[in-house]
UniProtKB/TrEMBL annotation:
<keyword id="KW-1133">Transmembrane helix</keyword>
<feature type="transmembrane region" description="Helical">
    <location>
        <begin position="154"/>
        <end position="172"/>
    </location>
</feature>
<feature type="transmembrane region" description="Helical">
    <location>
        <begin position="92"/>
        <end position="113"/>
    </location>
</feature>
<keyword id="KW-1003">Cell membrane</keyword>
<dbReference type="InterPro" id="IPR025966">
    <property type="entry name" value="OppC_N"/>
</dbReference>
<feature type="domain" description="ABC transmembrane type-1">
    <location>
        <begin position="93"/>
        <end position="282"/>
    </location>
</feature>
<feature type="transmembrane region" description="Helical">
    <location>
        <begin position="261"/>
        <end position="285"/>
    </location>
</feature>
<feature type="transmembrane region" description="Helical">
    <location>
        <begin position="125"/>
        <end position="148"/>
    </location>
</feature>
<comment type="similarity">
    <text>Belongs to the binding-protein-dependent transport system permease family.</text>
</comment>
<dbReference type="Pfam" id="PF00528">
    <property type="entry name" value="BPD_transp_1"/>
</dbReference>
<dbReference type="InterPro" id="IPR035906">
    <property type="entry name" value="MetI-like_sf"/>
</dbReference>
<keyword id="KW-0472">Membrane</keyword>
<keyword id="KW-0812">Transmembrane</keyword>
<keyword id="KW-0813">Transport</keyword>
<dbReference type="Pfam" id="PF12911">
    <property type="entry name" value="OppC_N"/>
</dbReference>
<feature type="transmembrane region" description="Helical">
    <location>
        <begin position="30"/>
        <end position="50"/>
    </location>
</feature>
<protein>
    <submittedName>
        <fullName>Peptide/nickel transport system permease protein</fullName>
    </submittedName>
</protein>
Amino acid sequence: MATPTIVDATPAAAVKVKRQRLRFVANPKAAVGLTMMGIFILLAIIGPWISPYDPSARSNALVEGPSAEHWLGTTHLGQDIFSQLLSGTRSVILVGLLAGVIATILSLLIGVTSGYLSGTAAEGLSALSNVFLVIPALPLIIIITSILPKTTDVTIALVIGLTSWAWGARVLRAQTLSLRRRDYVEAARATGESTWRIIIFEIMPNLTAVIASNFIGTVIFAVTSEITLAFIGVNTSGDNWNWGTILFWAQSQQALAQGAWWWFVPAGLAIALLGTALALLNFGIDEFVSPRLRGNGKSKVKTVDGDTVRMRVGFTPVLGFGRKDEP
């Protein structure tokens, strides 16, 4: 009796899964955003170690332009701006990422829980989100950081994260309300799955794009908030440098009137590049999860199954089945 031949389809399935995982990195916007963010994170880690001077050290080179000795010029006290920029990168990245993580965790706990559950607990969490949503975040952050006896990067990140989660919680609550009555959720509930298992394994995977977008938006808000706090004079004492501190001293010493463009342009350019990197990552995530955006304006797009999708503005995409008589 002949033994049946077993065809191993594991390599083909593994290649398909690998292609799906690499699709995000293959997106040009996501690739550029990841590269730029990688550079900023690397500078945040090694920046204070590779800076040529102590950012607070004074010298006799007062308000001098870029040169071989000082690549980005000096301040009114002879401080090296390039060293200040490198040292300040760590503070900006640390506050942005830490505040983003804190706010995302809080928005997940409160938003998804209030959206899936019902009753007094859900209404109380929703009311809490509404209260934090109407409170002006930046003035509240300014008041809290001014009251605290000492403000460090971690303290500022905690304050920003604890006061900027409400908007993400509202968005996640709205998405959860639309998902909790789906067929697969009802099926999981009918089979006796616990509430937290349904939330974690059935609902949260479908909120990945919203969670990632919420995290990136919070990081952008945290970075701009920290820079704004430093620019208006909050947390500018001591040796805790960030890009906002550089702009604060440039503005207070009238760098623009003196023509010292090197004092404020590099910090402003660094802020713009970091915002661009985060925005590109956000666009890449949107295109990764949305088939309509994944086409990048192409008229025909290949799906995962190999079918052809015609992307038409204003119409539902039409699936083509590879007929030879198609025009």
